[in-house]
């Protein structure tokens, strides 16, 4: 599916997604990744939700986003509750959703000039 959004010049925006990929600024990605409005971290080194720990969120926490969107792939899966509590205790919101919903939500929040980060499982 292609996504369209205006008024986000120069920022990273999801421009499409499908089974096994996302497209950011017209470039296709097939590996888990982190997307920030001004930075992309390719090849996020985690393969399953169950493997997530705080170290995997270091690139996100370093930029102190207002909210982290965790896109868990085709199906909604929740990470460990202790991990979620640890992120929330830092004053950072964490929303867990399937990857397609995370892409759409990221674009909306970026257009609203919110300081958002997306951690995406493909």
TrEMBL record:
It comes from Nitrosomonas stercoris. This is Xcc1710-like domain-containing protein. InterPro entries: MTH938-like_sf, NDUFAF3/AAMDC. It comes from the Bacteria. Gene3D superfamilies: MTH938-like (3.40.1230.10).
């Amino acid at each position: 599916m292609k996504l369209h959004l205006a008024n986000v010049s120069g920022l990273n925006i999801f421009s499409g997604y499908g089974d096994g990929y996302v497209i950011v600024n017209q470039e296709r990605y097939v590996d888990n990744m982190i997307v920030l409005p001004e930075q992309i971290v390719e090849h996020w080194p985690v393969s399953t939700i169950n493997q997530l720990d705080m170290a995997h969120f270091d690139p996100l926490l370093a930029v102190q986003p207002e909210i982290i969107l965790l896109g868990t792939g085709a199906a909604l899966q929740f990470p460990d509750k202790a991990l979620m509590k640890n992120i929330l205790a830092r004053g950072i919101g964490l929303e867990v959703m399937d990857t397609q919903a995370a892409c759409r939500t990221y674009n909306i929040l970026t257009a609203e000039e919110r300081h958002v980060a997306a951690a995406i499982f493909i």
